[in-house]
């Protein structure tokens, strides 16, 4: 039998946590954003992400799986007809959690969890252009590094040749110095 994650149960038993998360997910899909405590938002995020992923697939089996969690058929319909297709090209990260400070009554840390807006065609084009710019900059940096390496090798080779020609002269000079000391 599947057991919930270890740790706090958000106010009670495993069944209560499951129902609480189902209600929060329903409200999130119905309104697009909800204000709740940070702990509940963090526990809700993976549940909501998995439900959106199932909605993206859009088949009957996944619809029935989502209906086990989200009991409101109108919300499931919205999830499968509007929210799922909105994130068709997005690989994940459908929700955003924003901390908003503490609640006035009990000083509990609060957060807003919301569905991230799907990228428009213009935003996707900008993202692709930025990625292409980064790639070209990286390639250019790699090309300049390779060119600098070749320049360094080219300057080191004549220096090594010069050292090789000077090396025999140094022992002769050392021998002359020793002869002068002996005399």
From TrEMBL:
Keywords: Ribonucleoprotein, Ribosomal protein. Transmembrane segments: none annotated. One of its GO terms (biological process) is translation. GO terms for molecular function: structural constituent of ribosome. Residues 132-141 have a biased composition (Basic and acidic residues). PROSITE patterns: RIBOSOMAL_L17 (PS01167). The keyword Ribosomal protein applies. The keyword Ribosomal protein applies. One of its GO terms (cellular component) is cytosolic large ribosomal subunit. Residues 132-183 are annotated as: Disordered. Signal peptide: none annotated. Residues 156-174 have a biased composition (Low complexity). SUPFAM superfamilies: Prokaryotic ribosomal protein L17. It comes from the Bacteria. Belongs to the bacterial ribosomal protein bL17 family. Part of the 50S ribosomal subunit. Contacts protein L32. This is Large ribosomal subunit protein bL17. It comes from Streptomyces violaceusniger (strain Tu 4113).
């Amino acid at each position: 039998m599947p057991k919930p994650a270890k740790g706090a149960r958000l106010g009670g038993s495993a069944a209560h946590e499951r129902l609480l998360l189902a209600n929060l997910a329903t409200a999130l899909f119905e309104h697009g954003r909800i204000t709740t405590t940070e702990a509940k938002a963090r526990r809700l995020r993976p549940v909501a992400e998995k439900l959106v992923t199932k909605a993206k697939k859009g088949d009957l089996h996944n619809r029935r799986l989502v209906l086990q969690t989200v009991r409101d058929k109108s919300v499931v319909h919205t999830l499968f007809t509007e929210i799922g297709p909105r994130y068709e090209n997005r690989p994940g990260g459908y929700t955003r959690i924003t901390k908003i400070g503490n609640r006035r009554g009990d000083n509990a840390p609060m957060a807003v969890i919301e569905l991230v807006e799907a990228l428009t065609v213009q935003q996707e084009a900008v993202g692709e252009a930025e990625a292409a710019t980064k790639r070209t900059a990286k390639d250019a940096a790699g090309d300049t590094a390779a060119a600098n390496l070749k320049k360094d090798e080219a300057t080191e080779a004549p220096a090594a040749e010069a050292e090789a020609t000077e090396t025999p002269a140094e022992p002769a000079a050392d021998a002359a110095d020793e002869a002068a000391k002996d005399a």
